[in-house]
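Example is below:
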Amino acid sequence: MSSAAPTLPAPTLRNSTEKLALEDLGYTLFGHGSFPSADRDGRPLSGASSILPPYARTDSALPPPEYVYTSKGEPVTLAMYMFKFGPFCPLFWIIGAFIYFMPLHAPRMASSAGSWLPDKTDAEKQVHLELLRKTELKWAKRCAYASVCLFSAIGLAIGLAVWASHRRP
């Protein structure tokens, strides 16, 4: 039992402008030079300006849109880097696990250098600090789990080596 896809009617060209648009599309897609201003026989294209819509003109001076950086992910933390670089140096996992026991405080800055996050209110700063701490704890736990797995694997390997060496007569 096979179900055949419904057949669609073949596209037909209704007027010369549509044919011209399809030919221009072929030039654009297949790279036969620049946008043609004349047909293959050298005659100027009639209706070439009606193919593309005119650009919208604005006489009023509108200001450009403002782009504001908003982070949709979690903030980058030291524990995150410790976890990611831990396979290259397992000592990073151990250091990252100790971050779990360290408190996180807002940075103290000199009065001449300004304050930490000067454009935010105290409540926004507290929310940001809580998000940082939550992220730090998540990555610190991962560092601790990776350290435990590493030490377990090393301990298992040493235990098997000792067992295998004592087993021989």
